[in-house]
Amino acid sequence: IAHGRARRAPPWWEQRRETLLRLAAQGTPRYVYDLATLRERARALGAVAAIDRRYYALKANWHPAILRALAAEGFGFECVSAGELAHVFATLPELEPERVLFTPSFAPRAEYEAAFARGVTVTLDSVEALQRWPDLLRGRAVWLRLDLGRGDGHHAKVRTGGSAAKFGLPLARLDAFLEAARAGDLRIVGLHAHLGSGIEPAAHWREVYAELATLAERIGTVATIDIGGGLPVPYLPDAAPFDLDGWARDLAVIKAAYPQFALAVEPGRYLVAECGVLLLRATQVVEKDGVRRVGCDAGMNALLRPALYEAFHGIVNLSRADAGATMVCDVVGPICESGDVLGRQRALPAATAEGDVLLLADAGAYGRAMANTYNLRALPAEDVIE
Ligand code: LLP
Fold it and tell me: Where is the active site (predicted)?
């Protein structure tokens, strides 16, 4: 079967080579974010009429310029820790608490206390929380995160539903939760499900909405249904972009079937992945047992996704954009682990040499956010292009 190359707009960075090389000269590793691309994604999501509330999952990338740009586009924020809550309000002091969602996993009680004190919307996901903290929860209105019994996503490690995952109240315990809530004077005003990240099946979100809406009708107090994030982006060169128009049509149909609820989403990756690139500098080119490796000044410490999920990020040599002959090589980092490979069997210019600047594409989501100082290597710098 011949797969036609999917129609994708050329990435923003193809037009920004000189700027990126100038930034790289200030030091690598370095993440660079293009706000125009971010706004384009934000406006595309903003135009999906069926959606009433949009929360950006800032775990994907909490750079202040990104948070400010998304707030200006009408986004609220989904936070998972007291640290994220503090950061979002420090960055956006005017932000109304109603625009913030707190959706933690196994967080300590003190973080729930902090969230209630700020007046943000809090999501619970276990009966045990109600049993242990009745004093904290009495009289509150909260959202309930459900596990719909299945997970989905680009890798087993990012699927957040089903019995193997730690997230969400299983449906079998819903009645127990509702009973404990009634006894504890707690009102469920939102239902929430986020079943994974990088989800391909287009029907996923409308199915989640339908399932939650059916349950919400039964519960009777629910005003908002949150169908999570998980929208995919095309990392592979011939992958098709996410069909946002088809998604919008889907959501309009299902929303019309249950119009009494406000529909909320909380995407991270979709908004920021393609607006970010990681710039590295080649350190050494070495051949061993027939494998050529291009080493870089950062690897899994700066971008963990390939090592953790075997995730694919396009790699180009920015310093030799129009070089002719190519070679096949692995692109590796300087970390003392065999898994420190950024890309396998990639085509790079045959002339690639020490000092060249390499660009890793689509690195704006879960890139800098998951960077670490393993081997005592410094965290990557960050720049924003307006
Ligand atoms: N809502 C909740 C409750 C979440 O846990 C997440 C992501 C999101 C929303 C946003 O999901 P997104 O739209 O970005 O798929 N580090 C992994 C992804 C982990 C996602 C964690 N939760 C990666 O690099 O692929």
Answer: 336 (proton donor)
